[in-house]
C-alpha cells in the first residue's frame, strides 16, 4: 500500500509538491557547507608554544625606589630618554654637565635612581656601568649592592655577581633575595655543596614564593649529587608553595622515579604533573615507561594511546606500545604497531630494532639469537631484547648477563628484576625467584602478574595453600582475569577441594565461554570426582570450540568407553585418527573397542596398524597374542570336534 | 489512563502520523543508522576529530643527469618526520640505480649510485605539516652556559664568522638596550636583517661578511648573518634548509634558521618575515650549513621541485592503528586492496551521489543525459580538476557529436557507428597524452577514462535531439546535466563527506533510507509545479505527476507483461484484431536483416504507406511516404527519399535505433491513413489523433491532438501540437491549449478549435473500451485516428500515457484515477 496522501481537490504547494523536501535539502546543504567551512578553518590555526622563562623566574629582584625631588626625577627621565634613543653612551651620560654639576649627594641620588630604573628596564649593561661608579661602601649604604649583584649576574658575570651578593649578605645576613640568588648562582655554577648550605639558610629565613624557589633550587642540587630522597622531599615542599609550577612538577616526578616510594604515590604525582599540561608528549612517554618498569603494562598501553595523538612524529610512542603489547602477550596488536613502524621508521638503528622485535614477536628465537650474538649490544632496548631471547632459548646465563647490564637503568630496573626472577624460577631456584618477585611487589603492590608468578612458584613447590593465599592478592586486583581464576581452580583441585574448584571453574567458563584451558581443567576435575557425565558435557562443549582437539577427542572417547558407549567412542577415535593417523594410543583404544565388541577383522586391522607404528606396543602385543590364543583355542576345539 | 499509557500515547500518535509519510523500512533504517552512529561516537569519541581536514602536500623532486662514465653518485636530503611535519608516503623511481639511506643530526639523505644508463631520479612524497608559532617570553635571559651537544651551534665557521670586527661593529650599532634579553636580541637582529638587508636572488653561497658589506643577500646570506649575530650573543643558532611548497614547479630551495631558546629550536625566516613561526608550506629537509645536492661532476645535473596541496580527510590518508584496534575506517580496508586514495574517496561517495541524482531527478525533476552519467563525469573531474574535466567533457561530447553527424551521412549502422566514435575518442586521447607533459598535475584514473565510452552514447542522444530540432529540450537536458555534474562534483570533493563515510560507514543506512523514502514519495516534482501551474489555482483536482503516475497507478496496476505487449505494436495489432478493434492494415513485416530484400520488394510503388519501427515511441523512426516520384519516395514533409535511403532507414530500425529498449527491432509498413474531413479541415498537415485515458475500465479523459507546422506535422504536444479537450459525454471540444497557452484558433489554418464535434464519438469510446478488454492494462492511453474511409482506427496503445492531458483539461487526473480502483 502506498503511503496515504490526503485526497482534497485542491493542489497544495507545500503538502503535495517537493517544496518541503527542497527546503530540507537546502538546509542540509547549508549545514554541510557551514560545517565544512568551520572545520576547514580549525585545521588552519597555528599551534602556539610559549617559551617561558623558567630558570630566570627563580631569581628574585628586590629593588626599591627612593623618592626623589621632582627636578631630579626629571633629570633622570631625561637621561633615560637619551639612553633609549642611543644618542649618548652611558659613559657620556655620566659625564654630562647636568650630572657633573650636581652635588655629591644629589649626584648619587640621581645615579642611584638611574641605576634602579635601568635594572627595572632590564638594561643590565648600563646599570652595571652606572653602579660601578659607586664604591662598595656607597653601594651598601645606598642599598644598591643587591641591584649591582643582580645586574652582574644578569649580565653573565657570575663570579663578580657572587662576590657582590656575598657583600650584601655580609651587611645583611638575612637578605632573602640575595641569599636565594647567590644560592641559585652557585647551583648554576656547579657548586652544589655550597649551594645546599646557603639554600638551607634561605629556607630558614624565607617564606612564600621565595621559599618555594629555595626548595626547588635545593632539590635541584640534591638531584645533581644523586640524593634523590632529599630532592623529592624538597620538590614536594616547593610544590606546596607553588602548586602550579610545571617545571617543578616535572623535575619532581623525574627524581621520584629514582626512589623507592610506593607505586601509587609516584603515579599520583605523575597524574598531577600531566594535569598541568595534558599535551606534553614526552611526559606521557615518561609515564608510560614508568608503568612498564613497574609491571603495569596495561596502564602503559592506555597512556601510550593518549601520547600517540599528541605528536605527529609519534614513532617513539608506538615503539613503546609494541613493547607493552609484547609484555602482555598481545602479539597481534604488537604486530600491528611493528608493521606501522617498519614502513615509517627511517633511522637505521631503530629500523633494525623493529626488525628484531618483529622476529621476536614471530617467535623466531633461534634466528634472532644468532643475529644478536654477532652484533654489539649497547642500547638498553637491545640488551633487554637479548635477555628475553636468551630466556626463550634457555641460555639463562647469557640472559642474566644482559639483565645485569640493565640493573641501574631507570627505565629497565623493574623489568630486569622480573625477568631475573623468571630465570631463577625456570632454573627451579625458587628461593631466589621468590626474593626477586617480592622486590617487584615492593615496587608496585598492584602488579597482579607478579603476584600470580609468586603463586605459581608456591604451586611448583606444592604448597597450594600458600599459592592460593598469594593468588588472592592477584585476584583482588584483577578479579576476572581468566589466567588467575584457572590457577585458583587448579590449586583448589590440588588441595582436593574439588567442589570449590568446580565452582570456580564453572564460573570461569561462564564468563569466558571460549577459554579452552578452563574447560579442560574442569573436565579433569569432574573426572577426578568420578562425575563422568559432567565431564563428558564439559568436554563436548570444548569439542564444539575446537572440534579437532586430539586430547579432548581422546578423553571423551575414553569416557564413553567407560560408559560402554562404544559406537560414540569409536566415532570420536576415528575423528581423532583422521587428524592424526599416527596417534598410537587412540588407535589402540579403537582396536580394543572393536575387540570388545567382537569385531574381529576391524580389531585385527587396527592392531596391525598399531604394531606397524610401534612394534613393541605392549598393549597391542598382548592383545594380539590374546586374540591369537583365542583363535588357536577355537581352531583346536573345532578340530577336536 | 495509566501513567505509562499517558507517556506512550503521544509517541504512538506521533509515530502513526509519521508513518503515513515514512515506510517501516525507512524507520528501521533511520533508527538503526542513528543508533549505530550514536554508539560509534560514544564508544570512540576521539574518532570525530578525524573529520577535521588537514592539508596534504605532494612534494616532488625530479633530478636529471647525463653520466659519461659508469660511476655516478647523487645525494640529496629527503623529508623526514618531526614534531611539525610527517611523511605519509613516499615513492622513489630511479631506474638502474642503487639507493642508500642515511640519517644523522643534519637530516635524512638518500644516496643514489649508478652507471651510464642511469638518467633520472624521481622522488615523490606526501607530507603533512603544521604551523607552530613560538612566543618568546619577554623576560628570558640568554644563558651563560650550554651543554656539550649545543656547542657546535655556538662556533664560528668560515662562512659564519663571529669574531670578525665588522660583525662586532654591526652588532654594536644594532644591539638593543638589554643585550642579555633573548627576545630583544633576537628581535633586534631580525629587524635589522629583515628591513635593512635587501633580498636579492644570488644563486650561490653568501657568507655573513659579504652580506654585511653588500647589505644585500639571498636567503642563505641573510640566514648566515643572523646566525653569526646570534652566536655572537651566545645564542645557539643553526641554519635550516628546505623547500617552500608553493603550488607549481621551481628550482629554488630556501634557507632559514633556528635559535635555541630554552630547549626549543625556534624557527626564524628573516627573508620572508617569519619570526618564531614556520608556515604550513615550509618543508624542512636538513639542518646545518649544508648543501642540498651533492653529485659527481660533469653530469649535466638538472633538477626541479614541484609541489601541490589539497585539503583531505585524514581518515583517507592515515591508517592510524588507534582506530584499527576498535574499528578500522572503511578507507583502511579499501587501501588494503590497492585502491588509490582518489578512487577510494569516489567509491565512498558514490551512494551519496546517487542520492543527489535521485533527489534532483525525482523531487526537482531535472533531466539529464543518462541517469547516472553525470556522476561519472563528476568522478572524472575529480581526477582531472573541474575545469579540465568539463573542457574534456565538452570536447569528447563534441567529437562524438561530429562523429555521429559524419558517420550518419554515410548511413553507418548504429552499433558500428558508436564503436567507431569510441575508437576515435581513444585515438585523440592518446594524441593528447603525447602532447601533455608527464609532469602535469592532471591525474588520469580508470574513472576518468570510462566516461569516454558513456559519452559516445550520450552524443547519440544529443544528435537525435538536434535532428528533431528539439532545441528547448536539448537546452533543458544539457543544463540539467551540468547542474547534476556540479552537485556530484561538490559531493565528491567534500572533505567532510569523505571523512563521514569513511569513519562512520553506518551513515550509509541513512543514505539508503533517504533513497527508499524518495522512491516511496509520489508527490509533484518541482519542475511539474511550473508545468502544471495553471492547476494550482482553484479546485482543479489533484495533479498526477510522473511520480504518482508511476508509483501509485502504473506499478501496482500495469503488469510488466501487459506493458511489454503494449510496446510491441505488431502483437498489439494482432490482438486488437481478434477483438475486432479496427487497426491500420499491416502490409509487410521485416524482422531480420536477411528479410530486407524481400521487404524492400514488398514496398508499394503506386501509393503511400507508413514505415514504422515495432517498438518505437513518440513517433520516432516513422517514415510517412505519400507517393512516388521518379523512382524516389516522397515523404509527408515533401522530401524525396531514395530506395537506398529507405533501405538504410529499415536497417536502422532493425538495429534498434528507434526501439524503446535499444535492442534490435522489427520494421513494418501499414496503410497510410486518409484523415477524416472534419479533422483535415482543422489541420491538413500531419495526422491528428484522439487520446483517451482509461483507468480500471473507466474512461477518464479524452483529448484531440492536432499537429501544426511548428510541430513538424507531428501530433506531439511537447513539440508544438495543439491539445484540445474533448467532453466525454458528447465528444465536443471545449478547450484548447498549445504549449500551455490557451488558444481558440489553429495558428496555421485559422480554424476554430472549440465546439468541434468528433465524428463517430460513441464508436470511438466503444473501441477504446474494447482495447482495454484486449490489453487489460490498469491504466492506459488509446490513440485513435479517424480514417475517412474506415472510420476510427487504433494507432497504438500506450501503457504510460503522458500527463499533458491535465493541462489541456485544466483538471488533475490523480483523484479520478485512484478513485477508479
Describe this structure in words.
The complex is a heterodimer of chains A (641) and B (821). With 641 residues, chain A is an all-alpha fold. Chain A has a domain of 102 residues: Tetratricopeptide repeat domain (Serine Threonine Protein Phosphatase 5, Tetratricopeptide repeat, Alpha Horseshoe), CATH 1.25.40. Helix content of chain A is 75%, strand content 1%. In chain A, helix 12 runs antiparallel to helix 13, helix 29 runs parallel beside helix 31 and helix 31 runs antiparallel to helix 32. The termini of chain A are far apart. Chain B has 821 residues and is of the alpha+beta class. Chain B has five domains: 82 residues, Immunoglobulin-like; 148 residues, C8orf32 fold, CATH 3.10.620; 186 residues, no CATH class; 156 residues, 2-Layer Sandwich (D-amino Acid Aminotransferase, Chain A, domain 1); 87 residues. Helix content of chain B is 41%, strand content 23%. Chain B is built from 27 helices and 31 strands. In chain B, helix 2 packs antiparallel against helix 17 and helix 5 crosses helix 6. Chain B starts with a helix and ends with a helix. Strand 1 of chain A pairs parallel with strand 7 of chain B, so a sheet runs across the interface.
Task: Give me some keywords for this one.
heterodimer, A: 641 residues, mainly alpha, Serine Threonine Protein Phosphatase 5, Tetratricopeptide repeat, disordered N terminus, B: 821 residues, alpha+beta, Immunoglobulin-like, C8orf32 fold, 5 domains, seven-stranded antiparallel beta sheet, six-stranded antiparallel beta sheet, 27 helices, 41% helix, elongated
Percent of residues in helices of chain B: 40-55%
Radius of gyration of CA atoms of chain A, rounded to a whole number: 41 Å
Would you tell me the overall average pLDDT of chain A? 85
Main β-sheet, spatial strand arrangement of chain B: 29-28-27-26-25-30-31
Low-confidence stretches of chain B: 321-325
- What's the helix count of chain B? 27
